[in-house]
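About this split. The held-out portion is used to measure sequence recovery: a designer receives only the structure tokens and must propose an amino acid at every position. Recovery is the fraction of positions where the proposal matches the reference. Here is one held-out target exactly as it appears in the evaluation file.
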């Protein structure tokens, strides 16, 4: 599935839980700025690589992929309310509509317009 796991679904170590919370907060506040995403490492004694390894063990994916899935999940939730796909892309934080379409195909296996038409 494409649903992003919540930290409460599996026990999360404090740095990992903080990373998940930071990704979700960051995504809600500035969804288009995932390139330089800081995953809570500043508040942790872990190195970036250690945090990534622990995140992978606890969550099952790297922090960047988790952030991409969170953005995709937001886009899917916006598909019913926004009429134009360009608006969905912008509101979900994609750089442009073509980036949104590429990432949508990666996660959903189809184009957003086709997906919307089948619902």
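Reference sequence for scoring:
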């Amino acid at each position: 599935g494409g649903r992003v796991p919540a930290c409460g679904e599996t026990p999360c170590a404090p740095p990992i839980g903080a990373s998940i919370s930071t990704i979700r907060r960051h995504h809600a506040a500035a969804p288009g700025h995932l390139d330089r995403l800081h995953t809570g490492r500043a508040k942790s004694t872990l190195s970036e690589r250690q945090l990534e390894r622990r995140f992978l063990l606890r969550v099952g994916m790297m922090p960047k992929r988790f952030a991409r899935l969170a953005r995709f999940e937001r886009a899917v939730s916006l598909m019913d309310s926004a009429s134009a796909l360009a608006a969905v892309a912008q509101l979900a934080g994609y750089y442009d509509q073509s980036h949104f379409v590429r990432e949508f195909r990666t996660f959903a296996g189809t184009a957003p317009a086709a997906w919307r038409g089948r619902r």
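Annotator remark: The two ends are 17 Å apart (CA to CA).
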